[in-house]
Design brief:
Layout: H1 19-28, H2 31-40, E1 44-46, H3 47-53, H4 59-71, E2 75-80, E3 86-91, H5 93-126, H6 136-141
Antiparallel strand pairs: 1-3, 2-3
Helix pairs in contact: 2-5
Length: 142
């Protein structure tokens, strides 16, 4: 008879039906969510300024992201009846409470992207599951 396994980690504290928690994690772990929230900070930004501040985001992805963030209560959207129309976004109190973690995540990525790239190159060269004892240290120092 197989030994019974004891679950560990954060999931053990979640309710048995934790699909919604996974959905929230999916939202806040999305790269565009991270970039939108960290870009907003404590500022109110027009849509065009937000778009210009996030390299690589398409108009469609920015629109989809801010709509989802608004739906989840993480940002507010204000539209002004002007010509041309003006739309501004701002993080809510809930969104600002998430920003600390999001900014740390973005900062970690900025500080470690070269090491991750070196590790990917090394992994591509030696393959998954092979010994890295000789190459890992070299990858960390690049």
């Amino acid at each position: 008879m197989a030994a019974q396994r004891t679950p560990v980690g954060p999931c053990t504290a979640w309710p048995e039906d934790s699909a919604f928690i996974r959905e929230v994690l999916d939202r806040i772990g999305d790269k565009w969510t991270v970039l939108v929230l960290s870009t907003l900070g404590d500022r109110t930004l027009r849509y065009s300024d937000l778009m210009a501040s996030i390299p690589g985001v398409s108009q469609r992805m920015l629109t989809v992201t801010v709509k989802a963030l608004e739906r989840d209560g993480l940002v507010t959207r204000r539209a002004y009846a002007e010509v041309p129309p003006r739309v501004e976004y701002e993080a809510t109190e809930l969104g600002r409470s998430l920003q600390r973690a999001v900014v740390q995540l973005a900062q970690w990525a900025a500080e470690n992207h070269e090491t991750v790239a070196a590790n990917r190159t090394l992994n591509d060269r030696i393959g998954v599951g092979r010994s890295r004892s000789h190459g890992t240290e070299a990858a960390r120092t690049h």
